[in-house]
Amino acid sequence: MGFLRFLRRYNYSFKGKTRNRPYSIQQVQRRGFSKAEVFKSNDEVLPVLIIGAGPVGLVLSILLTKLGINCTVLEKNETFSKHPQAHFINNRSMEIFRKIDGLVEEIQRSQPPVDLWRKFIYCTSLSGSILGSVDHMQPQDLERVVSPVSVAHFSQYKLTMLLLKRLENIGFQICAPESSEGNKQHWEKKIMTGHECVSVDASNDFVTVTASSMNNGKRVEQNIKCSILIGADGAGSTVRNLVGIDMKGEKDLQKLVSVHFFSKGLGQFLLKENPGMLFFIFNTEVIGVLVAHDLRQGEFVLQIPFYPPQQTIEDFSPKACEKLISKLVGLEFRDVDVIDIKPWIMHAEVAERFICCGNRILLAGDAAHRFPPAGGFGMNTGIQDAHNLAWKIASVVRGIAPFSLLNTYDMERRPIAVFNTRLSLENFKAAMSVPATLGLSPTIANTVHQLVINGIGSILPSGLQKVALDGIFAIGRAQLSESFLNESNPLGSSRLAKLRHIFKEGKSLQLQFPAEDLGFRYLQGAIIPESNHDESPQLIPTGRRRDYIPSANPGSRLPHLFVKVMHPLSEETVSTLDLVSGDKVEFILIIAPVKESYHLAREAFKVAEERQVSLKVCVFWSSDSVEGLDKGSKAALSPWKNYADVVESQSTTSNWWDMCNMTNRGAILVRPDEHIAWHTISGLDRDPRAEMQKVFSAILGVHE
């Protein structure tokens, strides 16, 4: 395939210096596109330019293309990283992936069986004493009760390859710098690798991006005009830096070295002895976390604490890493193949704002928020950013809504990012409770390190500083010896008992957060709150697993229930989430077959038609009252035909309206991103036409 040929052709990364040119911020019009401005593929100004070809940028490009919006992606590297990085895909992200043809099925086929990764294991070495283990899967996680799809364990670089394949299937090409020179039409449906954004300039009508690339040994710069620019270019975002948006939060929580390696021998050993996803290893010689990306393939990432400047990345040569791996395993496997070694720093920060310059420049993913990896919120939050953005951008580009609609992206997604930052921090603290219980407090370790750098150790030569630091840490690790950490030793026995309590009470690092993954809610934005003073209590992040409770409140994700969509000659069982199209910007109005609700639906159709918004009505019939289904909706909704009769699946005991805390005289309006925009619990006591005009005006930001 094309992208595979490209990946084989290029095997190095371009690393140039970004030039921070003066950035001009001008007042930009806040209207949407008029009908004459709706972009076609041969227009000089691109509708959307995305910087960054990571999972967030690629998912956004797929979602936009499915909605009929042309976009181009710039990626500064010439090859795609194979360092595994993120690997946990939560429920909500998997639901979004169901909108991308065949993606979920391929992830499920390719990922390891769940029994090989459901546990976190704590040990003194992979062949030594087990301190404890935590199973993160519960029966309901696999029964598709609260979601039509389960979570997944799938490495980020493998996900990137699948996304690239989907993009190729819908007409995208991956292009190196030399393929773009002199080609006036090269920007349509392209992923331009080796192109680095070096300046950004916003005018009243568009954004100009200067892209730098190397072409036959020469540096070439090209100006690209776009109406909307998306910075999805990672934690060190060039776009964010160029437009001057600061990050707020906690920096430098921890420094680590990430070692990517393969060993089928180690994989087979763990498959037989103790399969799991994460192995927290505490022994007298070294401490580390081993991430088993795929035990069957023997693919791992080892995370080791890193203390510069006493330690340098040169200290972690492939040979040195092989020795560390042997110490952590407790056995020597001759097939250990170290692929990549890189340092990284853990932060917990959120951008001060996600949008600027008249709503023409937006940040998504790690460019907008950087979390500790605890709980896997980074990539998942970014994918949900993209899902929130896609329908709003499409609405603006198509002239359905003004540019002000994009303000709601910041209003909705930034509070979620702030919450997820706090949640990942709480989960990180829970992770640190285990070494702290063993007498290895990371806080104390960092304090010791700072004393060596800035305190009494600062008068020592750098070589002696390193010796001093290693000696102090070795004394601390001595507490992990089997002669100390056992039931016969009073202090060791006490620590082991505390560990067991932490694991039993769910106070260690957690993998799943159903209440937060599926239950996050937008309190303001492109929604109609129940009142002007919506004071419904919000979850407080605790770092503990909590179950998801379905809700039909405005801003919430539409609850999942399996239902049957009735066709003239057949029926189809789907999730309620499948009622929302992924191929067009379409709202869904859910009603029961009640006279007043049919009247509301007819008025909603009229208002949607006036605003040139696609609307589909879904009429929910209970399984025991479908007598009038054959002709009831057809007669009641004529002449409109964009409706579906839906029957609750008989395989479930749930009642739709009870689940939603509503009566069957209520109604629910669902946005194209499957979040509820408006509802009425038990019918309207006001003019339905006026109500629908008010609702669509407020959601789309259209002021009469």
Record keyword descriptors for this entry.
18 helices, single chain, disordered N terminus, alpha/beta, 4 domains, 704 residues, FAD/NAD(P)-binding domain, 31% helix, D-Amino Acid Oxidase, Chain A, domain 2, nine-stranded mixed sheet
Shape: globular
- Low-pLDDT parts are 1-32, 34-43
Helix-and-strand structural type: alpha/beta
How would you characterize the largest beta sheet? Answer: 9 strands, mixed
Count of DSSP strands: 26
The end-to-end span amounts to 51 Å
The radius of gyration is: 27 Å
- The DSSP helix count reads 18
The CATH topology assignment of the largest domain is FAD/NAD(P)-binding domain
CATH class of the largest domain: Alpha Beta
Q: Round the mean pLDDT to the nearest integer and report it.
A: 87
- Total count of domains: 4
Strand content: 15-25%
Structure description:
By secondary structure, this protein is of the alpha/beta class. It folds into 4 domains: 2-83 and 154-246 and 352-421, FAD/NAD(P)-binding domain (3-Layer(bba) Sandwich), CATH 3.50.50.60; 113-149 and 249-347, D-Amino Acid Oxidase, Chain A, domain 2; 428-504, no CATH class; 562-700, Glutaredoxin (3-Layer(aba) Sandwich), CATH 3.40.30. Helices cover 31% and strands 23% of the residues. It has 18 helices and 26 strands. Strands 1, 2, 7, 8, 9, 10, 11, 17 and 18 form a 9-stranded mixed beta sheet that branches. It has an 8-stranded mixed beta sheet with strand order 5-4-13-14-15-12-16-19. Strands 21-20-24-23-22-25-26 form a 7-stranded mixed beta sheet, with helices on one face. A hairpin with a 4-residue loop joins strand 9 (196-202) and strand 10. Helix 9 (377-397) packs antiparallel against helix 10 and helix 11 packs antiparallel against helix 12 (462-477). It is globular, with a radius of gyration of 27 Å. Mean pLDDT is 87; it is low at 1-32 and 34-43.
